[in-house]
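User: Okay, second chain of the day. Same drill as before: sequence in, structure tokens out.
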Amino acid sequence: MRPLTLTVEGLRSFRASETIDFTGRDYLAIIGDTGAGKSSLLEAMGWALYGNTSWSGQPNQELMHDTSTATRVVLTFSVRGQTWRATRTLRRRDDRTVGAAQAELVRLEEKGDGALKEVDGVDKVRAVNDRVQELIGLNYEAFKRTVVLPQGQFAQLLVADDPRVRASILEQVWGVEGLADIKAAADETLRDIVPTASRVEQALADAPQDPAAHLTALREDVERLTSVAGSAASTTARAKDAVAAVEEASAKNTAAENARRLLLVDNSLATSANGLSAVAKELAEAEAAQATVTASAREELAAVPADDDGMSVAEVTTAQGVLARLPRLAADVDEAGSALVEARAEIDRLGNEAADADERVAAAKEQQEQHEAGRAALTTAVEEAQASVHAAEQRLGAWRSALAEQESAEASAARLQDGLAGLRSAVDAADAAAKAAHEEATRAQSAKESADREHAAIAAAAGLSVGDDCTVCHRPLPDGWSAPGDSAHDAIAAAARKAVSAEREADAALTKATATLESGEAQLESATKAVEQRTAAVGTAESALVAVLGPVDVTRSDEELLTGLREKAEVARAALTSHDAAGRELAEATQAARTAATIATANNQAAVAAEARAAAALTRARKECEEAVGLIPPALEILVQHGSPGATTQMAGLDEAAAQLTERESVLAERSAARLRLQAKLAELEKERTALDQRRCRELTEPLEGLVRKLDGERQQLERLQASLGVDGVEVPSLVGVTADSAPAVVAAFHSGTARLAEVAVTRLNESTEALIVARAVLDEVGQAIGTSGDVELVAELERRQKDAEVKAGIAQHEAEAFEARVEPIRQLREASAGLEEQRLVLEDLSAALNPGAFPKWLTMRRSHDLLLHASVLLEEMTAGRYSFAEVVSPDDPWKVIDNDSGLPRSPASLSGGETFVASLSLALGMVEMMARSGGHLESLWLDEGFGALDRGNLDSAVEALSQVAARGRMVAVISHVRAVAEQVNHVLAVTHGSRGSQARWLAPNERAALAEMDATGEPGAMAAVAGLLD
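Assistant: Same drill. Structure tokens below.
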């Protein structure tokens, strides 16, 4: 990955939009003061590509400037010969929180005019992240350890990473992860091949080894089966012809037999026809005699008189029933009238009792109300007495509480007064200790400053000898000069730090003691005010208590002080209780009177209801009596009279009516007897007529219909026989209107036609005998040949055998044609099967070779070994042979550095800051070289900080090593506040921070020279001057 342009806006200190063009620059430096925003440029590139930063796990919240409403980063970069543009943006919401990031990644191509056009891309955060990792070949953790090395993480790969994490990152760098992809692809292809090969084997399972020979055999089967089918068809045709001849002879024989059978039938039908004629004559005579007797009986029945000359039988019966009921109905009326008189007397008696009860209730209620009116004064007296007791109890309790609070406040104030003396002593002691600690810290700091100057001289003289330029005055060192020896700088510095710490502790102790004293004094003041407030509260509570109890004797108990008020309250309650008891007795008497009145009223209402029921009963009894009289015919002249309730009902004319009813009943009975006798006789005559009808149906009608049906059947048989024989001139008589008298003549006509057809049938049967013998011989021959008897079964078997032969021939033909079409595919399948088997073996070997822990692990170990060898050479060059890297045997072994002076390995964590930087830089440059040797795509290297820890010699070596990498066409960028780096780098990007935020600009050669001169002379404000140039 090689950056081409970078645009940032609203990102941390870069408030305004800044675009930086890296095109054509291989070796560059980004310089600026601490906090100017140099590292933000590296973080911007990492965020544009991966959506992540090295600060924390919440890059969206950290990236946006506090005053910005949006953040935008656009990185254009090249990778593997393609140009891509990654864009990420953030928006601040109305509630000042930062929303989710938006991302886009597009590929760019040059148009004819040199401009770039978008070709394709993705626009979702996850999709962009995945595509970037696919393009660069590294995840974010590997990217910030190998390509962009952020501030504070430059030595992460060397010092801090767990060996397993380091191995995972190196696998990405070396492309070993691609081997896992190759293994996965091989396994996936193998999984696809296995079922395909299985399907090919299944397709070849029924294929013959020699398809051509198999096809020839199939064609021979076709010829043989076709010949068999032809022979079967010929035999079937001969058998069918013979069966037809036999069936024709059989039909002629059947015709002759049918003719003979019909002649016999005609004889039987002639006998039946003659018998039906005799039966018809006998039935006619019997029916005429029965009709004469029936007419005579009907004339006699019509002579009986009708019953419409007076009361009918129903009216007589009803009137007799009513006459029998009238005495009882009159008694019911009299009884209901007596009950009504009694009910009205009971109403009068109970009404008087209810009135008396109501008067007693009114008197009791008036007495109760008068008693209740006196309760209000007693209740008020009780409430006033109880209120006085309650008020006295409350005020007495308040007075006691006020006294207790007064005593507590006085005791608390006394305790605080006693503790102030100790607090003042503690403040004096802490003040003296703070002054002593300050004097000791001042002395120790002076000693440290003197030791610092001596230590700086020792460091500046390190490695110098007589004649070298002094690092301070830049003049040659004189003869006899020797480097000053080391001093106890570290011990003096530690003592100074300890003295300063003690001074801070003493100051803190004095501050704490002073605060404690001030707090105690404030508490005492508050306690004194509380005593005054409690004393005033005691006076107020005592005044309120005196207003209720009078003068108070403090020596008496609460019970003694409240006794008088409580006795008055008890007297008032006793008077109220006695009054309530008397009230309850009056209430009970009133309730008893109400109950008696309720019972009397209920009894009166019951009597009224009984009187209504008695009146209704009297009305119903009179109505029933009147309705009964209304059912008696008016001719009987019955009279019924009702008096007032309780009087006897009067009735007249009952005996005369009973005599008239008896006489009319006798006349009606005689007429009914005559009618019943004659009707019975007519019923018997009707039965006789029905029996004659049934006999006619049974002995004449049904037999005649049967004869006609038989003649109709014979007619149809004669017509069929005539049609089968082909004879003309035989007339068949009509059967329409055949009677018992005409039946014998019709039967004789049928017999004549049947005789003529029988003669023709017998003649033709004799003529077909010879053809029948020949056909039977053919059928017997074929039947014996196939083992089947019966003409129908024989023909069916021959047809089945013919069809089987034809089907087999057709199947053979189809199989031959189908197999002919399969010959070439079978050959191709055998070739494909062999190829799939060969491919399966190769893929299984490849998958086994790429299993985790085998070849990939060996390759990672091998590449790591080569990396450490090359990095060792660089490390020795940059440390003048002092350090190199130790070899590793296993990927799980920690990386170590060899101290060549002692020959012993050291942990990278034990190196100084400058040594760690040089070792990490050697690894980074070695990784660039290893990627170049293996055709990798590590096209740029970005280093953030670390140069400040190097002395001039190591700095020059590091810058020279980086320039050699840049000279081979790779981009190298160093980020540092050490402006000496800019002296040896052609392209310098200066980053400054001002009132408008951070700005970045490439320095011109004269600006670089001015910056280097100011840095060399130690002139302060060098970067401020650069900022002025930018402005």
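Residues 211-302 form the longest helix (92 residues).

User: Thanks, on to the next one.
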